[in-house]
C-alpha cells in the first residue's frame, strides 16, 4: 500500500462528512453531471454547491472539466482506492488479533462443573 500523507485522509474524510457532498457523490456515481444538474435537487444556492464541489475536488473524490461555459464533474476512478486499502489493512490487523486471541483461548483448559 502506498503511504498517503495524513492530511490526504483528513481531506477525504472531511469531504465525506457533509450530506450534500455525499448526495453529489451518489449522483455522480450514475455518471458525469454539470454544476447545474448537481445543483437542481439541492436546496442550497449555486455558490454553496460550488464550494461543496471544490471540497470534493480537494479531497480527490471528483474531477472537473470545463468545456465552453459548462463545467462537468465526475467521480475519479481511483477516488476510494486508498481509503479501501487503509480500511482493509485495519480489518486485517483486527482479524489477526482475534485469531491470536482464539489460539490463546484454545490453550486455556476448560473448567469442569461438579
Please name the defining characteristics of this protein.
114 residues, alpha+beta, Arc Repressor Mutant, subunit A, 12% strand, WH_DNA-bd_sf
Q: What kind of sheet is the major sheet?
A: 3 strands, antiparallel
What is the CATH third-level topology name? Arc Repressor Mutant, subunit A
- Round the mean pLDDT to the nearest integer and report it: 88
Task: State the order of secondary-structure elements, H for helix, E for strand.
Answer: HHEHHEEH
Radius of gyration: 22 Å
Overall structural class, as computed from helix and strand content, comes to: alpha+beta
Descriptive account of the structure:
This protein has 114 residues and is α+β, with helices and mostly antiparallel strands. Helix content is 58%, strand content 12%. The chain has a single domain, classed as Winged helix-like DNA-binding domain superfamily/Winged helix DNA-binding domain (Arc Repressor Mutant, subunit A), CATH 1.10.10.10. The protein has helices at 6-16, 19-28, 35-39, 46-58, 81-107, and strands at 33-34, 62-67, 70-75. Helix 1 (6-16) packs antiparallel against helix 4. The longest helix is centred in the C-terminal third of the chain and has 27 residues, at 81-107.
Brief synopsis:
The chain has 114 residues and is α+β, with helices and mostly antiparallel strands. It contains 5 helices and 3 strands. Strands 1-3-2 form a 3-stranded antiparallel sheet.
List the helices and strands and how they pair.
Elements: H1 6-16, H2 19-28, E1 33-34, H3 35-39, H4 46-58, E2 62-67, E3 70-75, H5 81-107
Antiparallel strand pairs: 1-3, 2-3
Amino acid at each position: 500500500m502506498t503511504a498517503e500523507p495524513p492530511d490526504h485522509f483528513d481531506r477525504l474524510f472531511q469531504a465525506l462528512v457533509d450530506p450534500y457532498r455525499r448526495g453529489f457523490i451518489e449522483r455522480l456515481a450514475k455518471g458525469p453531471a454539470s454544476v447545474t444538474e448537481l445543483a437542481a435537487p439541492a436546496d442550497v444556492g449555486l455558490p454553496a454547491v460550488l464550494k461543496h464541489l471544490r471540497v470534493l475536488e480537494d479531497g480527490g473524490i471528483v474531477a472537473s472539466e470545463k468545456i465552453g461555459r459548462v463545467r462537468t464533474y465526475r467521480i475519479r476512478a481511483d477516488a476510494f482506492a486508498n481509503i479501501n486499502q487503509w480500511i482493509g489493512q485495519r480489518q486485517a490487523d483486527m482479524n489477526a488479533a482475534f485469531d491470536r486471541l482464539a489460539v490463546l483461548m484454545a490453550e486455556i483448559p476448560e473448567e469442569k462443573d461438579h
